[in-house]
Structure formats: C-alpha cells, structure tokens
Specification:
The protein is an alpha+beta fold. The chain has helices at 18-24, 31-41, 44-47, 65-78, 98-109, 113-125, 133-138, 143-151, 174-192, 201-205, 216-225; strands at 53-54, 81-85, 93-97, 130-132, 155-157, 165-168, 198-200, 229-234, 237-242. The chain has two domains: 18-168, no CATH class; 174-246, Arc Repressor Mutant, subunit A.
Length: 247
C-alpha cells in the first residue's frame, strides 16, 4: 500500500512550530519522552493496533497535570498526535501518533473512496477530538459516508439525542478495552488482598496478569494516573497503595 502522508512529520520533537514548541515545553513536564515510553509498552502485534497511550497515564509520569494537559493540546493542535475517544461508553481518551492513525485508518477503510476521503479531507482539516455533522457536510461527506464511518468505529455517537456530533474513535479497539478494564480490576484485587492494601512496585511487576494481554507496567501507569493507585517513594523502592477512590 502506498503511504499517504496526513501530516508533515510524525516526530514529536521536530514537528512543532516555534510557538507551539514553546508552549509544549512550558511547565515542569516535558511529555514527549513519557509518550514514547507509554507507546513502547503497547503490544501492537497482539491487538493489531497502532501504539496507544491513555491521556491520564501521563499523570503517572508528571505531577504537574496542568502542564501535561497544555502540552497534549499543543501537540494535538500541531497535528503531531491525535486525541481520540477510546470508546463510546468509556471516559478514557487516548493518544496515537497522527501518521500511524492515518495509516491505520487507511488500512481499515482501504485506498480510494471513503478511505481517501477520510485521510485526505477529514484528518487534514479536523484535529479536534470530535466533529459535527455540519463540518462533515462542509467536507463533502454524505449521510451514507457518515453511516459507514460509524459502522466501522471511526466515528462514535457523541450527541445521542440529535446524532449531530461525533467522537473520533479507533476501529477495532474493543479487545484492547477488554484487556484494559479486566487488568485494571485484577491489579486492584491483587494489591487489595495484600497487607495494608499496598505492595512494592517490584513485587507487583513480578505478578502474572492472566486476564489481560497488556504488560503490568502499562496497567500501573493507568491506575496511578487515574488516581486508583498512589505511588509512595520508600527506601525499599516505590510503594503502590490503593487510594480511597477504590474502596
């Protein structure tokens, strides 16, 4: 398949304009290395998806959440990453490299027709996490096109009452969501059964996750960033403790 570029560059560090780059480096956090780390943990061959990082996982790597949110927005506005809804019924948002998302949609939808329309029109002109019917009409998408994108999971219903706005989603993401939610629950149970509902991180990493195809470290970032686990530094190493939100 001939690769069609949806953006000028897929490199986080090199793709930002001077003004956006300045905004992305404001605050104490610089999320580029954090994103690369989270993407490296994602088992692409297992789920047949591009590397996915959850937005809140970045909070496990940086304490300044305002700075993280600011940098995510800067990267999204620049077209380097896509901020996407993980699922219609999920509260989580995920981050995928824009070029990889473009390539993935092209492989799902095929070249020509709707696939080309999405990669050459929608992705190049809409960098937001959602899109309205009016905007899709402006971009020459018919009702049939929209229905096709909904059935394939590219668009998710945002406004249930009117059906006139859509979240941008990831086709074929359901197996990942199942592993994420099951692993999240199992890890909470493992730590919850320990004394004082806390465990050293190294001991948690030695556990086997039988219900999830994601690495335990990915789940740790999910739970810490989602405020379901608290990380405490000790002389014996990082301690992971269940928070009040999980009780």
């Amino acid at each position: 398949m001939k690769r069609k570029s949806c953006l000028m560059s897929s490199s986080i560090s090199d793709s930002l304009s001077p003004s956006v780059s300045k905004r992305a480096k404001e605050g104490k956090a610089n999320i580029s290395s954090g994103l690369e780390h989270l993407w490296s943990l994602f088992p692409t061959q297992v789920f047949l998806l591009p590397p996915i990082a959850l937005r809140h996982q970045l909070y496990s790597l940086h304490t300044d959440r305002t700075a993280v949110d600011r940098q995510v927005e800067a990267l999204r506005e620049s077209g380097v990453v896509r901020l996407l809804k993980l699922g219609a019924s999920e509260e989580d948002y995920c981050l995928i490299r824009s070029q990889q998302y473009c390539d993935y949609l092209q492989s799902c939808l095929g070249e020509g027709g709707l696939g080309t329309k999405v990669t050459e029109s929608l992705l190049k002109n809409c960098h937001d996490v959602s899109v309205t019917n009016e905007r899709l009409t402006e971009l020459k998408f018919s009702n049939e096109d929209i229905s096709g994108l909904v059935s394939r999971g590219v668009l998710l219903v945002r406004d249930v009452d009117t059906g006139r706005s859509w979240w941008c989603g990831v086709p074929g993401v359901s197996p990942f969501i199942r592993s994420l939610t099951r692993g999240r629950s199992m890890l909470q149970q493992i730590i919850g059964r320990s004394r004082f509902k806390e465990m050293l991180r190294r001991d948690v990493l030695s556990k086997r996750m039988t219900v999830s195809k994601l690495p335990i470290e990915y789940h740790i970032h999910d739970l810490v960033g989602g405020d379901l686990l608290e990380r405490v530094e000790t002389t014996s190493g990082d301690l992971l403790r269940l928070t009040d939100a999980t009780h």
